[in-house]
Amino acid sequence: MRSLFVKLFFWFWLAIMLSGVALFLLAVTTRSGPVAEHRHRLVEQRRQLTRQTLALYGLAAVEIVERNGPAAFE
Q: Are 60 and 69 in contact (CB under 8 A)?
């Protein structure tokens, strides 16, 4: 009975380690694929959103200065 436990224990951990190695290799080999492209698209979208937001804030600041003068920001 004891040797059965040892065998099951050994094969369980061997399967876990092989699965981990397989997942690691899969992650390394697919790193430059769709995940990198998706990340690049997200970064570009964030940059575009930031540009638009800053442009709106800039236009609002110009409008405030034109209406109330520079003293409006003090």
A: no
Domain ranges of the chain: 1-31, 32-74
Provide the b/e sequence for 6-21 (b: ≥16 CB within 10 Å): eeeeeeeeeeeeeeee
The per-residue pLDDT string of the chain (74 residues; one tens digit each, 9 = 90 and over) reads 679 989 999 999 999 999 999 999 988 777 666 777 888 899 999 999 999 999 999 999 999 999 988 888 77
This prediction's pTM: 0.48
C-alpha span between 45 and 4 (Å, rounded): 57
